[in-house]
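User: Could you go from structure to sequence for me? I need the amino acid at each position, not a summary. Structure tokens:
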């Protein structure tokens, strides 16, 4: 049976105080977690002297105790420099990796992991470098295992330590103790216990004093959870090693040819090329070893004059990307609403529900186990509800802080766009002075093209973009080349085709969709049928995509069928006019050259997509036509 329980004013006050200290504990933990984020030390003197740490550990040290995806590529190059593998060039931009006989040099766990991957893929003893890829679905587990082994190696070398100081542990211990023991005191004061006849001398199977034992167990579990977090920071020797490797990184960047060195150059540079790959100085080598798909969290940038890797964050909480005034007002509403529910309504609801449950148990013959189960379910449900309310309340307070701090405060950032994610409409800019940047939403502006130099007016906390000006636009790259490098960067001149004159308004008019211009390379899986060397523009709203490519008459492939589709004939021949391929690609050949329009549109039939593609092709070719999304298709 359930004892007489009364959530009086004193019990509610104790429970409320415990909840308040619980919120304070969570805030302190979050603040200390952010404040203890590893900070890069000042770079040491520029030097070519390599330390004893492997390239993967050097990668961790110069990236704030985080392992990036270039660590695996650097390890592969290092294995080649140490004669476990061989890398050589089989043709223009074609590299082969060959497995050498094993020798007695000991390998770390992550070096063995990379070597085993190469052996598994190079079944005949050698294979093209692009074949050394991770199997679909295995990327996360493979990379996670490598990251853990690199961190373990760095710890064994004394370069890393736990994230929390003695002061941190003192704060966590005191605040967690106040939270759990005040809650236990509240339950004790409310006489929350179970009574029965076959029990102890005082008739209580679960006396209310036991809440303090439960609080002690909960306190120990909380501290154990904090200790189990895999969070590390530099040790004193780790800071010194990181400064030394930053000096090596700056030294390697002084030689422009080093950044363009291919993987086969390991025969010349030796282990220096492996460390350059790990440190972010050997861009071409890192790009040529595709152990992983494109990482949303990193990008290569040349802002400041040399190639370097930039880490990108995508904040999604606390009103990020919203206008400061709206976030501030919305935060006030959230804080008041959820705060009232947490500190005023929840105790009354708990008291009422307990009374109903107590009456139900008293009026029903149930077993002791069932009684304990019902009580347990009740407290778990109330605790979960209280936690949700407190998290919502804290979310409102943080929104108020961010919105108020950003009111009237706008920073101006100028630099190249280093990452564009069409799915979600994110873009990131490298100002040239930071190795970590946050991605932004374009707001009312058009999503910029990757590689363009822009000037952005943005708030500091919310990342709210109020103005975006394109200072210079690169030539648009073609996904068909697979390089992701603007054509102007390879040919020296920007393509001057009709596609470059098509504006967003024309695309929206033809499709009836609110599309934005995006980087073509961000639309993976599209553009495979567009001929190499074509000028390409892409438009997307995250779900619907349009790619338009043009090749001038003197470069149009009039007789070469480059389409990967199984449709007969491939691209139109010199005597043809157009071809509709795979239900979403229109290829036309005319006086303006070859025009390819790929429309990946949801909720549109093949016929509707073909009409839209014809309308877009007509706009590109500047030919007067009555064909539109709602008109009948012309005879071809």
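Assistant: Here is the amino acid at each position, in order:
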């Amino acid at each position: 049976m359930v004892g007489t329980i009364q959530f009086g004013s004193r019990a509610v006050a104790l429970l409320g105080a415990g909840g308040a200290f619980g919120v304070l504990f969570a805030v302190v933990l979050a603040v200390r977690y952010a404040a203890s984020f590893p900070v890069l030390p000042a770079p040491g003197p520029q030097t070519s002297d390599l330390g004893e740490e492997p390239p993967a550990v050097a990668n961790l040290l110069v990236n704030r105790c985080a392992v990036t995806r270039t660590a695996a590529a650097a390890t592969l190059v290092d294995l080649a420099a140490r004669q476990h593998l061989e890398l050589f060039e089989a043709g223009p931009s074609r590299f082969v990796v060959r497995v050498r006989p094993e020798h007695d040099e000991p390998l770390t766990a992550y070096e063995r992991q990379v070597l085993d991957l190469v052996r598994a893929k190079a079944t005949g003893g050698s294979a093209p470098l692009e074949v050394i890829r991770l199997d679909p679905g295995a990327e996360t587990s493979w990379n996670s295992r490598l990251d853990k082994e690199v961190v373990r190696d760095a710890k064994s070398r004394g370069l890393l330590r736990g994230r929390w100081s003695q002061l941190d542990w003192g704060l966590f211990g005191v605040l967690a103790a106040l939270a759990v023991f005040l809650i236990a005191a509240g339950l004790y004061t409310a006489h929350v216990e179970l009574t029965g006849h076959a029990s102890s001398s005082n008739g209580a199977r679960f006396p209310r004093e036991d809440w303090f034992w439960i609080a002690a167990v909960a306190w120990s579990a909380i501290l154990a959870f904090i200790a189990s977090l895999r969070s590390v920071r530099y040790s004193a020797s780790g800071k010194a090693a990181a400064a030394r490797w930053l000096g090596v990184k700056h030294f390697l960047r002084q030689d422009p040819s080093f950044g363009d060195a291919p993987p086969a150059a390991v025969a010349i540079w030796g282990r220096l090329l492996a460390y350059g790959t790990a440190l972010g100085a050997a861009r071409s080598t890192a790009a040529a070893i595709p152990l992983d798909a494109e990482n949303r969290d990193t990008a290569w940038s040349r802002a400041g004059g040399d190639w370097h890797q930039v880490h990108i964050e995508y904040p999604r909480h606390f009103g990020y990307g919203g206008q400061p005034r709206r976030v501030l007002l919305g935060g006030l509403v959230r804080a008041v609403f959820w705060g009232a529910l947490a500190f005023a309504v929840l105790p009354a609801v708990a008291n009422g529900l307990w009374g109903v449950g107590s009456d139900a148990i008293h009026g029903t013959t149930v077993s002791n186990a069932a009684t304990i189960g019902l009580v347990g379910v009740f407290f778990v449900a109330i605790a979960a509800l209280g936690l949700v309310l407190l998290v919502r309340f804290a979310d409102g307070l943080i929104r108020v802080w961010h919105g108020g701090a950003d009111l009237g405060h706008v920073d101006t950032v100028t630099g190249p766009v280093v990452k564009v994610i069409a799915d979600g409409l994110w873009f990131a800019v490298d100002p040239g002075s930071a190795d970590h940047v946050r991605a932004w939403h374009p707001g009312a502006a058009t999503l910029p093209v990757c590689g363009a130099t822009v000037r952005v007016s943005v708030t500091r906390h919310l990342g709210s973009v109020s103005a975006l000006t394109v200072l210079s636009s690169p030539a648009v790259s073609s996904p068909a080349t697979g390089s992701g490098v603007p054509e102007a960067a390879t040919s020296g001149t920007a393509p001057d085709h009709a596609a470059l004159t098509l504006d967003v308004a024309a695309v929206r008019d033809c499709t009836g969709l609110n599309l934005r211009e995006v980087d073509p390379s961000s639309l993976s899986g599209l553009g495979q049928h567009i001929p190499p060397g074509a000028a390409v523009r892409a438009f997307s709203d995250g779900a619907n995509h349009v790619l338009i490519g043009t090749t001038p008459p003197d470069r149009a492939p009039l007789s070469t069928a480059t389409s990967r589709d199984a449709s007969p004939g491939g691209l139109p021949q010199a005597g043809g006019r157009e071809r509709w391929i795979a239900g979403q690609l229109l290829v036309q050949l005319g006086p303006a050259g070859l025009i390819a329009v790929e429309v990946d549109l949801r909720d549109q039939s093949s016929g509707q997509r073909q009409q839209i593609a014809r309308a877009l092709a007509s706009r590109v070719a500047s030919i007067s036509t009555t064909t539109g999304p709602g008109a009948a298709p012309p005879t071809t």
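One structural detail worth keeping in mind: Residues 411-472 form one domain.
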